[in-house]
Amino acid sequence: MLRDITIGQYYPAKSVIHRLDPRVKLFATLIFIVSMFLFKTFVGYIVAGIALITVIKMSKVPFKFIVKGLKTIWMLLCFTLIFNVILTDGTILFEWKFIKISIEGIRNAIFMGFRLFFLIIGSSLMTLTTTPNQLTDGMETGLRGLKKIKIPVHEMAMMMSIALRFIPILMEETDKIMKAQSARGADFEEGKLMERIRALVPIFVPLFISAFRRANDLAMAMEARCYRGDNNRTRMNPLKYKKEDGLAYLSLVLYVAILIVADRTLGPIAESPITKLSTSLSAMVHIFNCL
After folding, report:
1. Are strands 99-102 and 92-96 parallel, antiparallel or unpaired?
2. How many domains does the chain have?
């Protein structure tokens, strides 16, 4: 399970997406996240899905490798879908005690499920095609204007880079601790939910000790190398925009334009059958209640 976490990992490949400037990928990821809230119909999800599939194909990252990162958050997805179904008011299809399932709740759950799926896949794709050093340089260069108002951009970018680097290391350390305790008789698979949670407590203590020890070693190594933050700092490979980066920005603008136009023009047409179905179900429920 821990090995299925893909956040913070880098998948090396020779693709157009890998060669793009990190500032382009950071900005594109931000725009993609914002675009998930610009539409309210299935047409918008179709356009976003086509765009996401196209980028995945261009990145040459196996789709199975990207999707396996969802295994660690499937519980969050399930809880989100369940809460949307039972907590959304509307035309009631099923009611039992405090549980109410409505047509609008099912619709919102489907929309929210697709939205979370696209957001996770899009964010994972950025980290899979960009090294932590590139992310740090891209964030620092892209936000350098904030230095004028005394915001420590370099320190923020450095913390992000260190956090991404430590995620796979801590996952590997957790896996080693669990295997060592399993060899000593610990059981993490059987028992009730609370028993499993209690069984995980002995893992956290050595894990936190290991994390603090690694952080202390890293701080001492940075001080030994006279690290002083952003003071007169230079780069071996400064970031420069290329022709393909300009094409990527243009493609991003086209994506947003197509998304908005398709949602406003084709969206109502595609929603009419769904609206008719909802009306029919509402009438059937009303007749059933009258009987």
Report:
1. antiparallel
2. 2
The verdict on 128 and 23 lying in the same domain is: yes
- Band of the pLDDT at 72, cuts 50, 70, 90? low
Q: Residues 6 or more apart from 226 whose CB is under 8 A from it?
A: none
**Tokens, residue 192:** 């009730």
Summarised one tens digit per residue, pLDDT across range 148-178 is: 887 888 788 888 778 777 877 887 888 888 8
Could you tell me if 208 and 265 lie in one domain? no
Inside any domain, residue 3: no
What percent of the chain shows pLDDT beyond 70?
78
Residues 37 and 102 in one domain: yes
pLDDT in tens, 180-197: 877 777 766 666 666 666
For residues 126 and 268, state if they share a domain: yes
Is the domain of 27 the same as that of 123?
yes
Q: Are residues 199 and 248 both part of a single domain?
A: no
Evaluated on CA atoms 67, 73, 78, 81, the torsion sign reads negative
Phi first, then psi: give them for residue 204, nearest 5 degrees: -65, -35
Phi/psi class of residue 232: alpha, beta or left (left: φ > 0; alpha: ψ in -120 to 50)?
left
In the three-class reduction of DSSP (H, G, I as helix; E, B as strand; rest coil), residue 201 is classed as helix
Asked if 49 and 274 touch (Cβ cutoff 8 Å), the reply is no
> Measured at the alpha carbon of residue 20, what is the angle toward residues 16 and 21, in degrees to the nearest 5?
175
Same domain as 29, residue 126: yes
Which pLDDT band holds residue 71 (cuts at 50, 70, 90)? Answer: low
Q: At residue 58, does pLDDT exceed 60?
A: yes
Q: Which residues form the domain of 265? A: 8-142+240-291
Residue partners of 279: CB distance under 8 A and separation at least 6: none
- Residue 102 dihedral angles phi and psi, to the nearest 5°: -120, 165
| 27: in domain | yes
